[in-house]
Amino acid sequence: MSGPLPSASTAAAVLAAATPVVVVDVDVLERNIGAMASFARDHGLALRPHAKTHKIPGIAHRQVAAGAVGLTVATIGEAEVFAAAGIGDIFIAYPLWVDERAAGRFLALADIARLTLGVDSAEGAEQLARSLGAAASRIAVRVEIDSGHHRSGVLPLQAAGVALAAASADLSVTGVFTFPGHSYGPGAAAPAVADENAALSAAAASLHDAGFTELEVSGGSTPSARASSGATLTELRPGVYVFGDAQQWELGHCRPEDIALTVESTVVSRRPGPPGEARFIVDAGSKVLGTDRAAWATGYGRLLDHPDARIVALSEHHATVEWPSAQDVPPLGARLRVVPNHVCLTINLVDEVLAVRDGVAEERWAVAARGRNS
Fold it and tell me: What's the mean pLDDT in 310-315?
């Protein structure tokens, strides 16, 4: 089900919802969207948010209305959902290996939206063009650069070779991009931005030398976004900023008041903890929170209203909370707001979220691109 709640619903709708339930504070969400849009505008950057974080068309339209030039997605399925919802400019930031079936989906998308794909090899570009056939010129590509995350992408000085192969196959080469994923860590954002700038500058220069002009230079992540500038980048692609999560909170890239998504949970069991502490169980386990825990993270999630508490263990339907005092421990049946470590995983585990404004539950939003992994 998706859409408005019955007119009689009030804040009690949140309390009446069976837990665990994913709740989005629309006021905070819209403030986050506006703040990032303002940052990009003030720094001369196009904003193309990564929609794999939220997977919800209504949020995408809010981002575009605030100034985003389009969306970033990870899969063809995500692109199909957002294009069908009216988003007209989509970048699939992933080096897909494209067969004829996928090529048909691309061409159907190109009928309703401007579509750009990532490539990171001459072979991948040639396979894309071969599958598209005579329609290859309808699809634009950007060359992915490894700027230090060491996942996909080519080294900067290899970019021109990939671009020339793509152009020779009749694909339109429009730029270069990277994901500075090594920005996710304590003190890692500034060095990652320096790596990103160096890698993209070198890659863009190599493409210019090979005859490519008017290039889009795209990068950014939520941890690194606010350290970015228009000196190298032309486009910024953060995703998590719309919601925030426990990782961003712990890294200092968002405050508790910037967290728009929480998992409303119920205390279902209590037990003694270490001396002077207490432990209890809430009903938000790995099947709603996900299991991500970076090596530097202090837990599997946090409680929004109790910042000293930590989730120290997860099972499928259990989250063990370590409470810092044996006093004032929440009773059985208490409702608590859990902040997931990695919000992208939580969104992909639920069919809908409860949208709340000014403490009033307004709508249920379908997570329309959930599970669209291919």
Answer: 96
As a whole number of angstroms, the distance between CA 279 and CA 330 comes to 10
Question: What span, in angstroms and rounded, lies between the C-alpha atoms of 162 and 152?
Answer: 14
How far is C-alpha 15 from the geometric centre of its chain's CA atoms? 28
Which residues are paired to 310 by β-bridges?
322
* Residue 26 CB partners (closer than 8 Å, separation 6+): 260, 355, 356, 357, 362
Nearest in space to 240 (alpha carbons), one of 37, 33, 93 = 33
**Contact present, 154 and 125 (Cβ < 8 Å):** no
pTM: 0.94
pLDDT the model gives residue 326: 78
Is it the case that residue 71 has pLDDT exceeding 70? yes
Dihedral angle, C-alpha 162, 163, 167, 173, nearest 10 °: 140
The CA distance from 295 to 174, in Å, is 37
Residue with tokens 């030039």: 69
